[in-house]
């Protein structure tokens, strides 16, 4: 499925300033930047799957610098331990007590780099953080900072030395998408920008963490009409009933799609969602949450194509059903 072109004009002043600032570093990827900001504003997390060198890390760093966030990078390797992610209690001989040493996950924005290169046990160390916004070490639960955003990168599964993420882990990510190669014109722009100094070095903070927290509160107030909720449920249910799908999207997918639609609506200057918000976001929310049947895989069907079929078949609520 080729996702329809997206030329959203972000109306929310502070959000537009944030996106414009990130684009000083990330060239020609406004849709991907906007999706990342949607995740930030609704408490979701992002899985970026792409080949090395297309700007995944720079986009994460640019978002962090733009909001003055504490940023940590976790380089996932085969020998990484769960405690290297969450933190560990260390015994201090001076006071004869254990003291908690926070792991890199206890930051505002975390780049989980090449997450599919580490063992499933270490991948699972992120589950609680992604879902609950907390980590438990030695029986004590510690709440993570707000805002909290994990942006994980992974190499395509066909590359050697990778561990496919299990379904439970994939389901914790709000979005999965690719950044892709730039056009020739965009790549020339990249070369011109980094000729003397990388723009990330001079990128300024345009929003505070409190600004982001306040905007997140605005997102929670965005209205979702009952007809839009039914539309979300119909889309998600259709993935479960599709003949080519052995395991469809979970109820968590419905919640994720609704919250993402609220954030997108606010970004576009509305205090209510519309079906187009849901329709645009559905591919990014649903594709990675489905498992195809063996026959579908043998016939080279894709999750992308299945979601496209679902979107085409499910009835969209009419304007008079939505209200404002």
From TrEMBL:
**Alphabetized Gene3D superfamilies for the sequence:** Magnesium chelatase subunit I, C-Terminal domain, P-loop containing nucleotide triphosphate hydrolases
Domain ATPase AAA-3 intervals: 45-175
Q: Could you state a single Gene Ontology molecular function term? A: ATP binding
Q: Name one Pfam family in it.
A: AAA_3
- Domain ChlI/MoxR AAA lid: start-end pairs: 238-309
Q: Which SUPFAM superfamilies match?
A: P-loop containing nucleoside triphosphate hydrolases
Keyword Nucleotide-binding applies: yes
Query: What are the record keywords, sorted?
Result: ATP-binding, Nucleotide-binding
Taxonomy, superkingdom: Bacteria
Entry's family note: Belongs to the MoxR family.
Protein name from the UniProt record = MoxR-like ATPase
